Amino acid sequence: MSYTHFVYHIVWRTYRSLPAINEEHERDLYGYILGYVNNHKGKLFRIGGMPDHIHMLISIPPDIAVSEFMRGLKFATSTWLKQNTDFPLFSGWGEGYAAFTYSKEQIPVVKHYIMNQKEHHKVTTFAEEYRKFIIDNGGTIDERFFLKD
Length: 149
Hints:
Layout: E1 7-13, H1 26-39, E2 43-50, E3 53-59, H2 66-83, E4 98-102, H3 107-115, H4 117-120, H5 126-136
Antiparallel strand pairs: 1-3, 1-4, 2-3
């Protein structure tokens, strides 16, 4: 019997970072995402965000690629949001996402970070936050394409 334990911190944004996820109804969207995660045999540890982006800490089964999971999640939520009159500014998700892995011991720290998004973004923009995540995790940024959609 094999054992795997992958925990991902995934961040993605609305198209052109439009403030399309209103606080009044964000819990409805988060509930929809929870249902999607559960239906794909994943576990949602924490979700939160701002009007222009979402953070979630999840585990998904090892036989589901993160890219496959996110393609399906973005498609399903995009369809749901466009049909929902509570999100009139939503026109789609931006291209791509960022996914980082964390150990079991780091889960409380990442959960706390996600819980405090509203406070955190009083002093940090999404672009600054996203850039820092990518660089801190060994990625490089091509300025020609960074958050251009």
